[in-house]
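Re: the 251-residue chain
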Amino acid sequence: MSGAELISRREGGVLHLQLNRPDKGNPLSGALVNALIEAIEAAAQDEHLRLLVLSGAGRHFCTGFDLSNLDTETDDSLLARFVRVELLLQAVHTAPFTTLALAHGRTMGAGADLFAACSERWIVGDAQFAFPGAGFGLVLGTARLAASVGATLAADWIEGGRSIDADAACASTLATRRIESSAVEAECEGLRERVSRLDPATQRDIHAAITAGRHARGPAGDAEDLARLVRSAARPGLRERIAAYRHAQRR
């Protein structure tokens, strides 16, 4: 199945979802986020699914939250869209199967959060990461990032607003592997074989047991993450803060 912004392909127990806005760097529009949530929620009900692969068409994995129509947005519409992004991240993070993100090029903001939410996080060739949301007062994905790379490093990246190259991403375990583009097919096949060795029920139970530690905060933690996001995004002047941040970045 394919759509204007998301391409979905099923191969046995593997579901491939490709962000398909290459001319813009695959930013997360409202339509793309909704399509991703719908696909992942449907996949979670499929007991035969073993692996979800997320990739981006073109030069970049995902350049973040789509702000191309910021002038037409309001604080309320932006808040609603950011809530949907957080729900997407939670759906990926708690999926009952292995999730693999293939990052290349720019992987920024909500795109970096989407990468960090996956259980397997591979860099293909080269990639650059950044978490700029705090620059305009947004708290999104912070607890998940800290759980992955540690509180000290997460604070440095988020508060400092600096870019993270592929070597730093691998050293910090933000990325779990780095491979060449020529090896993607073979490496994905190896991962598919690994997650398909056991029967579906056992595999899901094993996955749940392994990820229990990674998701140690459980539903209460997800609710806290959502509440933090809403509090930060609900502060008056969100659109103006984003506009000011973008203006400063262009200088």
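The chain has one domain: 6-181.
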